[in-house]
User: What shape does this take?
Amino acid sequence: MKGLLARKLGMTQLFNPDGTISAVTVLEAGPCKVLGLRTIEKDGYSAVRIAFQPAKEGKLNQPLLGEFKKANVDPHSHITEIRNYPESHGSMNVRQPGAIGATDAARVFKGVRMSGQMGNVRTTSRAYRVVRVDAERNLLLVRGGVPGAKGALVLVRQSTKKVKPKGPAGKPNPRKV
Assistant: This one.
């Protein structure tokens, strides 16, 4: 699995060769430093550990500083793992509580576990296309709006699903028989 960390700088527009305008999101991508590799034999899973955005040593705790020193990398403020194997199929019973009470109570008691918000930390969006790459300034221009505020951290990964190319006027290409 390929991927890198980026910071969302905002949105702008590009003029296409045919005269139309495309909305793009500008991402400052990298440089990302490799901290280490996780292996199936040692850790039980396979992943690459990367760091992004340099930070002062005083802002980090001793275990993180030791990890950076061991990898011979300057301290960074954001660390993430990009797994090489997708998660396996699991139980679909994540947010359902099971039974919610007796049948003769005629009401549901206070404090009964129910499904609800599980957090607003990460959103995954798919099928974005990289329109332009500016290697000198470490910029990626991605077609469309990427979720998150300006300055938000974005994990850019290789797509796991194949996307069908669209034909003229945004319509899917007809299947060939």
Q: What stands out?
A: The chain has two helices and eight strands.
